[in-house]
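Per reviewer request, we include the raw input and output of the structure prediction for the construct analysed in the revised manuscript.
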Amino acid sequence: MIREHEIVLVSRESSLKGLSEALGLHLKAVHSKIEEYKRAEVDWSATRRKLEDDVRAESIKQEALARELEDTKRDRDFAKMEARSLQVIVMNFQAYHPNLTAS
């Protein structure tokens, strides 16, 4: 069991006392590693939640920007139509009132 779990014997003493001390040190080391892994898992979970929140927030921003872009394109297209309509009105006016147009 000592070799299987890589338990380091503190002393060359193979008595029950020496073996129990070695086992105690080994268990402390294992416990320390477990606590270290638990802290790392908590840190990783917090980081993952923050990144998920960031992704969610950026996704919401992206959707809002896409809607704003579509609205802007619609406004631009409407403005182009109005400009064309005004050009037609001006051209018709000039055609019917050639003496009022400036040369």
